[in-house]
Amino acid sequence: MPLQNRVDPFGNIFRTPARGTFLGNRGGALHNTDREIVRSYKSRRWITCLLEFRGRHRRVMSPGRYTELFFLDEAVAFAAGHRPCAECRCERYKAFNLAWSGTRGNPATADQIDWELHRARIAGGRQVTYVESVDLLPNGCFVEIEGHAYLVWNDALLLWTPGAYARKMARPKNSVVTVLTPQPFVECFRQGYTPEIHRSWRSFEAATSPIAVPRPTCDIL
């Protein structure tokens, strides 16, 4: 049975045999000695990392170590409340921090970001959402429509599934939707930070369409 270590755009941690393209954690061990999830987070530091970095290898869900979580892509990680890691994704973290600071007028430390972000992503053990016109949302946001998560991309919405984006529909006009991506991240996207999305988008878009290029899916050892 697959481990319970995949994260969806609603922030839930679930089981699936599908592989992710990004690794992350929520500040510590969320699992017990039987490798079962017993809490949703450990601290405010929720980050998104590379699958491979400097040849480091770990046994997933080792006792007493942080719980490795996996995401279909960076856009899903943002929706779930995770920012880029400042170590293994240094350049992306700098770009993200620049966008974050641009919405506030001054630079921010990782601790300041995590403190503000935590209040915007979870409250009372539940994901924080808000409503906004879908016409005003930038690329990279996730919205909820009839219980399903959709990625906002150009003039379309792409249906998320654990292994790929499965369906494309036109972005509805003059519609108010529930936004899953925390509002501070949405503000960063408006400042020019574009999250990387899974390569399955190519089954819906022309090859010449501009988009952030994701790294290939890798197995975790």
Characterization of this structure:
With 221 residues, the chain is of the alpha+beta class. It has one domain. The strands form 4 sheets. The chain has a 6-stranded antiparallel sheet. A hairpin with a 4-residue loop joins β12 and β13.
Principal-axis shape? globular
Mean pLDDT: 91
Largest sheet: 6 strands, antiparallel
If strands are numbered along the chain, what order do they take across the biggest sheet? 9-14-10-11-12-13
What integer value in Å does the Rg equal? 17 Å
Which key features would you list for this structure?
221 residues; alpha+beta; four-stranded mixed sheet; 4 helices; 14 strands; 18% helix; globular; disordered C terminus
Give the arrangement of secondary structure elements.
Elements: E1 4-7, E2 13-15, E3 22-25, E4 47-49, E5 69-71, H1 74-80, E6 83-84, H2 90-102, H3 110-121, E7 122-123, E8 126-127, E9 130-133, E10 142-145, E11 148-153, E12 156-160, E13 165-170, E14 176-179, H4 183-190
Parallel strand pairs: 4-6
Antiparallel strand pairs: 1-2, 3-4, 3-5, 7-8, 9-14, 10-11, 10-14, 11-12, 12-13
Helix pairs in contact: 2-4
